[in-house]
Amino acid sequence: MIYPENCLDRLGFSEVRELLYKHCLSPMGQYMVSKMQVMTKYDQINKFLRQTKEFKSILENQEPLQISSFYDIKSLADKIRVEGSYLMEEELFQIYLSLQTVFSVLRFFEERKEVYPNLEALFEHLPVEKTILRKIEAVLDPKGKIKPNASAKLQEITAEISKAEQEVRKRMDSIYKQAVSSNWVADGSLTVRDGRICIPILAENKRKLKGFIHDESASGQTVYLEPEEVFTLNNKIRDLEFDKRREIIRILIALTDELRPYQPLLISYHGFLTKLDFVRAKALFAIEVEADMPVLVTEPRIKLINARHPLLYLSFKEDKKTVVPLNMHMNADMRIILVSGPNAGGKSVCMKTVGLLQLMVQTGLLIPVHESSEVGVFENIFADIGDDQSIESDLSTYSAHLTKMRYFVAHATPKTLVMIDEFGTGTDPQFGGPMAEAVLEVLNKRKVRGVITTHYSNLKLFAGNTPGLENASMLFDNDRMKPMYVLEIGKPGSSYAFEIAQNIGLQPEVLALAREKTGTNQNRIDSLLVDLEREKKQIYDTKIQLSTQQNKVKNLVSENEKLQEFLEENRRTLIREAKLEAQTIIKNANKLVENTIAGIKENQADKEATRQLRQNLHKELVQHQVKEEKKVVKVAEPLNTPIEVGDWVQLLNSDTTGQVLEINRGNLVLALGDLRSVVKKDRVQKISNKQIKKLVQSNSFSGRISDAIGNFSAELDLRGMRAEAAIQEVEKYMDKSIMMGFPFIKLIHGKGDGILRKMIREYLRKYKQVNRMEDEHADRGGDGITYVYFN
């Protein structure tokens, strides 16, 4: 139940309806928009929301669903029902085009069975009767005109007309040439009068040529004459034209009779097209306002995350401004939210946002919120917004408010959503405040849900001490004296009456007198509220700073973990290389010793030969020792000066270098490339700038490149990702692949309905480096895997 009748207008739903009208392709879709009603059944709302979400997905993924235009075939089907009636060529062609759209849409969903189950329910059990198309195609050409061979008789008449027209043209040309040679003709060529071809003859020569005069010029000097010889032929053509028209009508009657049995089916096709146009309009509107489907629940509760007023969003979008999102929740424990704060601070917009989004959900529209938001189903939606005073009904402003309050109290239930703007206004605040408090208490006992805006202090105190009610305020920047449009739940807000008055330049004596008249207690309360607002602002700013610092700490921890992984991998690599080198040395040494022993045996322990072999062995060992010494890490000459911030240092027993960022007692914070690390001061030595250049050039670049190439995999798994996240991963992966010169990469995106595969391939076509893309072999994944080959 919606109360009062102008509730939809006051909350802005009528403007939303107007925007939906613009997205409709047909009057039938617009008619459905005009008949939209607030629903109260969970299953029905859920079905409508999911249909809109599925169509939005089709549009966003640029699926090949062609719906350009269609016509009101219901009126044509109703015309067919009458015996003896017939459809004109244009009407038959409208049916033909509309049915082509129907069958194209049905084919689209048939190819994607069970991908869009809620949209498929629109045409459940709807047959595809292409006989209708064939019957129309036998009579009409592709432009919607009767074919010359639609019947044997029509073809014969058409041929006779063509032959007679040629004869008329031949006779007329002959007579015209003769008249020209006799100088009977006025300036000009053959012309048409009353559907007949005529010769323009000078008035003084009209008796010299026998024929029928159809017209004369304005001056009377020229007459338009149809020669007697052609007159009979033209009459014959006219008779043939009548015969042709009668034959066409006969064909149209016969075709209409053939289509009459399909009249109920045409009505069904009309209904399908109308629903499709309606859902399409809702999906386009959802894209326009960046709407999504919230979590729909059966309980009467609301949890809005990053909610935006759709009309305000569109208005700000044109001015290239952004809307401050609304975050609020309403449940069994916190049923009514009492919003207070300064004028023009966003209280009414907050309340109207909640009301409008609730109306949109219960009419099957997606709303501009985060998809994790939750919206329940309410049986009643009541609103008291604006001034409804009426001379005719003898109602003042306050009387109109009280009339609504009476209705609210009489019909309120736990599944009622109430929105009241400026609660209690319109009369003396001394009496209006207590009256509003009494109504609020009764509504709270009825366990209704609602958002109420007010400036009354007694209502703020009542909400703070009553279970089920919760104070909330719109944040205000005390320094700049400007509203922040952020809803803060938990504490009431000040009206900032004196602060705003002072800010706009109201005279000090007026302000001082107003403060005296307000009363000490009220001033104290208002001052406390202002202080609370200031503290909330400080807490809000502190939270932001703390969040920034936490992010910095997380980044440092992440960098430290990466450095540890880098050092650990370095250590494992060095150990592995050392083991391999040791095995090679032992192998070569064993081989050298064996060769020496074999040589001694062959020479039968000859002293000279043995001495020579020993010298060779010693020589090989000395050469190997020299090579090993050259491989020792080059340690730079240490500097004896104290280490300061900005100096370059080298880790002891390592070629790793870094720059000092901070000095904390005995610890140094070093920048090791892109990483940060904390190292004891006694584990490093200071080096000069010349030495650092040599070390960096010789070690860092090649080591990083080799590590990057060694850790890179030419395979990327994108399964389970959303399209936007997958595209971002592909972009980063492509940059690495191209930089490292890989010939090809393998992208695993899965099959599904093919949407992710299509979007990835469309994105990859933007790269000039991509030579071609191929599917994996059918036995190894088929079109669920894409190979990308580079130039």
Q: Briefly note the CATH topology name of the domain at 295-518.
A: Rossmann fold
Q: Could you name the CATH homologous superfamily of the domain at 295-518?
A: P-loop containing nucleotide triphosphate hydrolases
- Contiguous runs where pLDDT drops below 50 for at least 5 residues: 389-394, 629-635, 700-706
CATH class of the domain at 295-518: Alpha Beta
Structural class computed from helices and strand pairing = alpha/beta
Residues in β-strands, percent: 15-25%
Number of helices in the DSSP assignment: 23
Radius of gyration: 45 Å
Mean pLDDT across the residues is 81
Major β-sheet annotation: 7 strands, mixed
Could you explain the architecture of this structure?
It comes from Pedobacter antarcticus 4BY. It is an enzyme of class 3 (hydrolase). One of its GO terms (molecular function) is endonuclease activity. Belongs to the DNA mismatch repair MutS family. MutS2 subfamily. The chain has 791 residues and is α/β, with parallel strands linked by helices. Among the domains are: 224 residues, P-loop containing nucleotide triphosphate hydrolases (Rossmann fold); 77 residues; 62 residues, no CATH class; 79 residues, Ribosomal Protein S8, Chain: A, domain 1, CATH 3.30.1370.110. The strands form five sheets. The protein has a seven-stranded mixed sheet, sandwiched between helices. Helix 19 runs antiparallel to helix 20. The longest helix has 83 residues. The radius of gyration is 45 Å and the shape is flat. The two termini are 66 Å apart. About 3% of the residues have low confidence.
